[in-house]
Amino acid sequence: MDKIKETTVAIIGGGACGAATLAELMVQLKIAGKHKTTRILLLEKRKEIGLGLAFSTDQPGHLLNTQADLMGIHSFEPKHFSQWLEEHKENIKHEVREENTLDDSYTTRRLYGNYIQEQVKHYLDEAKEIGLEITIVHDEVIDLIPGNDHHWEIKMAKTPSRNVDHVILVPGTPKPNNFSEFDELKSYFGFPWPSEPIINGIPNDAEVCLLGSSLSAIDAIMTLIDSGHTGKIRLFSLDGLLPRVQPKKESQYERKFLTLACIHHIRRTAWRQPKVKEIFRLFQQDVENYLGHSIDWKTTERKGIPAGQLLEQDIRIAEEGGDAFINILYSLRYETSQIWDWLSVAEKQRFKKWFGSYWTVTRHGMPLVNARRLDELFKNGKLEVNSPLHDVSYDKEKGKFIFQYGDKQKHEGTYLINATGPATKIDKMKSTLLQNLLKSGVIEAYPVGGIKLDPDKMEVISSKNPHKNLYAAGHICNGMLLDVNAVWFNVRSIAMLCKNITKKI
């Protein structure tokens, strides 16, 4: 009698995406009847599974930037988290902000971390019940070596290497390696997470300078004020744009022009991929249809307007249910990935150059409760946004960071937090594993950002060192895919990924 072949699948990364991958892979293996011949190896250097950097925080001001009904970690069950909130509502009220219903609520990240950990425990218990072997190794993966027959050798920092059949890369959101020349300075903090070094390393009454003005900067500000910080906070960024403010409840808008049908019409009649300018014209048509009149588009420019003024305006708009820009872009949620897939590399790059900053601040807004806290800081003279940033350096003699910005303006600051957000380019991600894989050609950079992969299978593509059975999901796929910071999108990608692996086993 032939020996039954056993297969080992390694999941590299034990954050939210790693937890979602574990759950989905288990479900598909069990349904396919392959759970008893498959082993799962979960590799995470942190002590806890499911939290990652962002959800390990204990601070009350660190909120999810997405409402609860889109945060479920199970594929095609976006409301799983809000249903969990309903089940636990008597114990979690103090962790919920600005809710009309629990579906519409924004919760603390620590509460979401509790939810993920509960799911992990559930599936680990289920694995024992169904006879699926799961091994968890707490170590840092530093390299993957391709072997014969598409096997992989996993090299780790402290523990012996492991040989596996399939590898899933879900390393979360790596820190950026920009401004690495400051890394050894005690007054420099290279990432908003974890927050403890910032809290412990900066006096409460000190002035603090931040690089960036996106959601990462908002997180850093919340870290400071939650810990009792009273000193002034200065933001320096390229565009000076803060994230817009999410309405309490999304307004439903049915687009008439910026639709998949209209964009596909371009493809089949012009016999080519659509251009960004064509998509933008459709967007303009929908905005004017939403408003009921044409507009002077020059008046929509946000750059150059004081950030505090814009924030006050955006809070009012959010309280009124959002505007055309916010509601149209949010209505695109489930179609943007298809539109993005239809764009050529050149057009994707063009989109990022022309509209990238406006897309980011509008599509990925901040919760209203945090916006009101920022508004208070502006009004009290405790917060300032400066742009455009031209250069930042460090004067060793003065022990100061030197910022050159605006119209030949200069500022000196003692404490600096890098809140520019996660790197999009793979070579700018601070990860030993990713840099080793890039160097060996196991992964290749995609020109728009992240790595090359087959978006229909989530399988990594490399012309330099081609090897099968390597998959990826989450932030490292940010160029080929658009919505990689959205849980609902990542879990659907993970479902596709697990489906392809299960077929191969």
Quick overview of this protein structure:
With 505 residues, this protein is of the alpha/beta class. Helices cover 36% and strands 17% of the residues.
Write the layout of secondary structure elements.
Blueprint: E1 7-12, H1 16-32, E2 38-43, H2 80-87, H3 89-92, E3 96-97, E4 106-107, H4 109-130, E5 133-137, E6 141-146, E7 152-156, E8 162-164, E9 166-169, E10 175-176, E11 188-189, H5 196-201, E12 208-211, H6 215-226, E13 233-236, H7 260-270, H8 276-291, H9 307-319, H10 324-331, H11 336-342, H12 345-363, H13 368-379, E14 383-386, E15 389-395, E16 400-405, E17 409-413, E18 415-418, E19 429-430, H14 432-440, E20 453-454, E21 459-460, E22 470-472, H15 487-504
Parallel strand pairs: 1-2, 1-9, 2-5, 9-22, 11-18, 12-13, 12-18, 13-14
Antiparallel strand pairs: 3-4, 6-7, 7-8, 10-19, 15-16, 16-17, 20-21
Helix pairs in contact: 1-4, 1-15, 9-13
Distance between the termini: 20 Å
CATH class of the largest domain: Alpha Beta
Determine the number of helices (DSSP H or I, runs of at least 4 residues). 15
Rounded to the nearest angstrom, the radius of gyration is: 23 Å
Report strand order across the widest sheet.
5-2-1-9-22
Shape: globular
Which fold does the CATH topology of the largest domain refer to? FAD/NAD(P)-binding domain
Protein structure class: alpha/beta
- Give the integer mean of the pLDDT values: 95
Q: pLDDT below 50 for ≥5 consecutive residues: which ranges?
A: none
Number of self-contained structural domains: 3
